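User: Assemble these into one structure.

Assistant: Restating your components, then the assembled model:
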Amino acid sequence: MDLILAKSMKIAGFLLLLAGWLLILSALALLARSGPRNAFLLAGSGVELLGLVLFVRSHITLKEDSD
Amino acid sequence: MSETQTALCIMFLLLTPLAGGGLALMNAGLGRTRNAAHSMMAALCVIAVAACVYFVCGRAFQGYAGGLARVLTIAGKPWDWLGAEPWFFSGLPMDSFGVGLVIGAPPVFLFAWFGILSVGLAGLIPLGSGADRWRLGAVCASTALLSGLTFPVFAHWSWGGGWLAQLGVNFGLGRGYLDAGGAGTIHALGGLTALAITWIVGARRGKYTSEGMPMAIPGHNAVLVLFGCMVAFVGWLGLNSAGAMLFAGVGLGRVPLIAVNTLLGASASALVAAVITKLRFGKPDASLTANGWVGGLVAGSAGCAFVPPAAILIVGLVAGALVTFSVELLDLRLEVDDPGGAISVHAVGGIWGVLAVGLFGRLEAAGDGQLLAQVVGIGTLIGFVLPLTYGLNWLLNLGMPQRVAVEGEHQGMDLYELGAGAYPEFMTHTDDFMR
């Protein structure tokens, strides 16, 4: 169960990292006013952070499971 | 560039390989005796593979500002996403002065030379993390991926006139993403690759107990590690000076500032690391102080030409604390076995250095938004470079296992992969074979 959960977390983390970056790119491309654009840039960074945390947690769980 | 500028830039580029030499010495010293020759051999192979692959296609993908590139137009704005120069260094003028002296013409051979040195340095960084268990063949293959794809793509975006560099022109974010000495482009990229490698190859056998408690596996030669710091410092002087002249367009008048900043950043960072370890463990720790020194060099790289000395002192102080605490965080809490401390030094230090340009940089005609431009750069490193390098190395691991076999780890990489040790007169302990 832990193994399935860890692998799901890893995939989710991976996708969130990419999604956060795409959010940053989209904010730059689509938003002209600086206020909303800056807010979306920071939101994208937040999504990346979440993805990184999930990615790190998944590796800890996978390592504990293999031990 | 004037003739004098070109000549000095060439001199700085000649110093730059010492940065790689210093890192190689540190990686060897922080590993075990039974892996020392393997570590230095791997460093040599990394530099060789990186140079050849960068020559074949890396430079073509990196390109340079004003050179041939692939550009997408989205919402009326150009997005320069990949260099489109010829492969095999084709089209480069044989005589750098011939082009460099034409007013307004970019010194294209110097860009290529800086690139071929930088990619080797970036490739050396993951070696510290994969020490004692990363196979030589896998090291070479992973380096080929880094120097043929990961590094050139990001280097194009930051140094080659790509969309990150144009954030200022296209979106009004300061002067665009700035990274004169490569804190992000070389070090954070190399450090994030090191993180991917440690996750893929796993921890060294015996590093963690079954309860997850980390065991101390100290480096075998503190003298090599500390001497490596001094050698790396000389290389960094060349790296920062040449990078600032080539990619940030600074003149010779800034070189003394760059030299002072390089020294101050490293000094403050090393002292903080020494003080923290003295306070926590009773005595200053040599390997963490060395990591602090290099962390300060890394963090100071991005803003070496734009940050005043008083601010670079703060950058160094923060870098020293970040490196020391992140080594502990990775080792104890996140169960990431990084013998060389490369993730803390290069990824954490590099990202902090990139951010520091936005916080402390004094840039002419930058306007607002420099901090955001730097944040976008960091977002790209974490959201694009980390998944890319992890994905590439994960795929590589499917076809070519990156971790050495169990007997290789027991016997030592020197004997197992090279057939001879670095210190043949040493007695080989029975437990080295039996554990």
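Helices of chain A lie at 2-30, 34-66.
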